[in-house]
Structures are given as C-alpha cells and as structure tokens.
Specification:
Helix content: 55-70%
Shape: globular
Strand content: under 5%
Number of strands: 0
Radius of gyration: 16 Å
Low-confidence stretches: none
Number of domains: 2
Length: 163
Amino acid sequence: MRPKIKNKLQQAYSEVHNMANSLQGLAKAYKNHDLALMHTQQWDDTNPHLVANKIKVILEHIDPLDLSKKDRFWWHEILWFWYHHAISCAIWKRKSRSWAQFYADRAMTLQTANHPNKITKLLWLLVYDRLAEAKWWAAQITGIEAKTAQETIREYERGEFFK
C-alpha cells in the first residue's frame, strides 16, 4: 500500500480513537458511531466536526482502485452507509429534494452488487417521484426492512417528504 494511502487510513483510524487498524475494523467502528448519531438524531451531513463526516471526507480522498479487493469492499460499504443516511437527512432534516437526489444517486453507485439493503433503492425511487416503481419495489422487500419500506411509502404518500 502506498504511503499516502496508508497515512490517510491512519488518519481515519485515529478518528475512531484507533479502535481500528483495517478498513474492515473501521467499517465496524464507523457503523457503531453512525447508528448512535442516527438514534440520537444528531446525524448531520453538514457538520464537519462529526466523526462520520470526517471519515467520509478522508475516504473520498482515496482512490478505491488503489486498494485491495477486500479493502475496496469496506471503502464502498462505509461511504455507501454515509450517503444512505444522508438521503434521510436531506429529506427530513434539510427538506431538500436536490440534495436527497444527489445523495441517493451517490449511494446507488456506491452500493455493492447483491447488497442486502433494499431501502436505498426505495428512497432513490421516491426522491425522483417514481411512486409506482417504489410501491412495486417495496412489495419485494422482505424481512426486517419490509416494515420500514411500507412506512416510508406511507410517509411519502402523506406528503411528509421535504416538508
């Protein structure tokens, strides 16, 4: 691994108090931090002081093609997760369709093939007002995400997106 990339990764590891020494470990620490922010409603795409945002910025300055296949997977996973939550922030906190579309587009490009999360695509369809497709997609979602999918469709239909 090139020294420049190694330095950037070390910077990211330090953001989680060196609780990680690999991109896989960083993904775990990042996810725990990110979910805590979402739970307390402190997640904010514009706050440069949040660890989640600092890590996102660091990783976006790394070309994933310079990483091993395994590390590239975790790079995608962390950034996808950031953009996935950024969609929600743009919809319900910022009330911005344009930001929601930007974040949704980016999340869709970062989400790896066969990723288990189906809500990202649902949000992408809804921020582009593709309700019929979103309803069809939501009907295909099973398991733990099924309830979230149906609730999200109802919120959209009630006009709660961007308001």
